[in-house]
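Appendix C reproduces, verbatim, an entry submitted by the partner laboratory led by Prof. M.T., so that reviewers can inspect both the input and the predicted structure.
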Amino acid sequence: MQIAILGTGHVGRALATAWARAGHEVVLGSRRPGDARGRAELSDALAGGVRVADPASAVAGAEVVVNATPGTASVSALASAGAAALTGKVLLDVGVGFDEEGGLSHPGESLGEEIQRTFPRARVVKTLCTVDRELMVAPGSLQGPSTVFLSGDDADAKGTAGRLLADLGWPADSVLDLGGITTARGQEHYALLFMGIAEAIGSYGFGIRVVPPAAAG
């Protein structure tokens, strides 16, 4: 599958390297694709077969687009690739935005909803925003299973997202479909609890697990 990832930070690089290792053709969209310093930071991804291009070129040939940019800049970053280029494509949104005081930049409407509203012909799926970048690509590193979530209005797009999660090592029984894109609010608001847990245990490398009730009888 051809995957374009917008965002060349730690999250974008981790996902790009993992999906390339799984056999996908991955391009990182960068505002400065020819910058020597930037390419040096991407050396591991480039060594793994990931390419770098400007956002519009990266998205043009992709089947799936991944938003791995800071949530406060995501809409403008996607717009730089061109709204028309996103038409019909699965758009995985893994971003969460924070304001200068450390609060959520999207306290009402989620970032996922804003992206879907701004680019109505894209098929947006919110996922992976409840775990850190290392756990995103190594769910088996924990002592036990954890849960990752899907939010989106398009069932086929969520099916594609599930297959890409499987390529990162997430088993099917760890993936919980929450429903439509409005449920992305819950995923994003978990970021506040995530930060509290991380501070309490001294690590970001943890997951959460949805534990159903015991069967009756």
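The chain is about 35% helix and 15% strand. Additional entries are available on request from the coordinating office.
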